[in-house]
Specification:
By secondary structure, this protein is mainly alpha-helical. The protein is built from one helix and two strands. The protein has a two-stranded antiparallel sheet. The chain starts with a helix and ends in a 21-residue tail after the last strand.
């Protein structure tokens, strides 16, 4: 199997994930979606500085 593609994907995701941590974000489990059905990797705090974890759920994910 070609190892370069997963390595490239991991390299490209690294700035995204480190940026979320620096902004006070929380990493979410795999297969978690927002209320619109889009997959999300992390949640960021709202204007009040709180993270509403009830918005993110695997049940929100669109079934194809």
């Amino acid at each position: 199997m070609n190892v370069r593609l997963p390595l490239l994907a991991a390299t490209l995701m690294l700035p995204l994930l480190t940026g979320a941590c620096a902004a006070g974000g929380v990493a979410l489990p795999p297969d978690t979606c927002d209320p619109g059905g889009s997959a999300v990797l992390y949640a960021l705090p709202n204007a009040a500085g709180q993270i509403d974890m009830t918005r993110y759920s695997p049940a929100n994910c669109r079934k194809s």
